[in-house]
Design goal:
With about 230 residues, the chain is α/β, with parallel strands linked by helices. The chain is built from eight helices and nine strands. The two termini are about 40 Å apart.
């Protein structure tokens, strides 16, 4: 087991390991314990009381953060020629179809979000094995498979992010950067929590939101009181 640095040990002393912090206090604390010298991402980790193996308990959708993520996401649009101008006008970074699919097959994945028109999904399926494992496959539930290409691109640029559970039933979501005020982080976190509550599958039983933790890229996690966030 790697030995913890002096700085890491000092930071951990600032956090009560099993204490559930009110959301306002948690956001102030996560800024206080940040160990990086760069503007690190602040991430929310929500463990849901679902069975991710059951399709009717899958939680997947999207949320628009009121204060954005602090990162300008690069967007690739896969569409037919008649939608290309709409995509470019909305701010898409890369636009095309066959040429882009060929580039991706060659190993290119220098983009954060893929938006696709429903009419081209058969072709997009050719690169599903590349996009899927990277979490880049467009999906109707996330609003990234749509004929409203301009609206979808604008939403991503405006702070819209995808929410989905991993194999353990945990949702990992960026809610901003360390440079954000605690208030902006709180508002973004609250929006994620409220959205996940609205997405609760009808078939779930018992406690739905089991734990909520906030952390920066390299800092220890801070547990949030779910009651203070509902």
């Amino acid at each position: 087991m790697a030995k913890k640095s002096k700085k890491r040990r000092a930071v951990e002393k600032l956090i009560e390991r099993d204490h559930l912090y009110p959301i306002d206090e948690a956001m102030a604390k996560v800024k206080e314990v940040n160990m990086t010298k760069f503007d690190a991402s602040v991430d929310l980790h929500v463990r849901l009381g679902i069975d991710p193996r059951k399709s009717d308990q899958n939680v997947r959708g999207s949320v628009t953060l009121p204060n954005g993520t602090g990162k300008n996401k690069s967007v690739l649009v896969l569409c037919t020629p008649d939608k290309e101008e709409e995509a470019k006008n909305a701010g898409a970074d890369y636009v095309g179809l066959d040429d882009m699919i060929t580039k991706i097959k060659g190993g290119w994945t220098d983009f954060d979000v893929v938006v696709a028109a429903p009419t081209v999904m058969a072709k997009v399926g050719q690169i599903g094995r590349i996009l899927g494992p990277r979490g880049l496959m467009p999906n109707p539930k996330a609003g990234t498979v749509t004929m409203d290409i301009g609206g979808a691109v604008g939403a991503v640029k405006g702070g819209k992010i995808e929410l989905k559970t991993d194999k353990l039933g945990i949702v990992h979501s960026s809610i901003g950067r360390v440079s954000f005020s605690a208030e902006k982080l709180r508002d973004n976190a609250q929006e994620v929590i409220d959205t996940l509550n609205r997405m609760k599958p009808a078939s779930t039983k018992g406690t739905y939101m089991k734990s909520v933790t906030v952390a920066t890229t390299m800092s220890p996690g801070i547990k949030i009181s779910v009651k203070s966030s509902s």
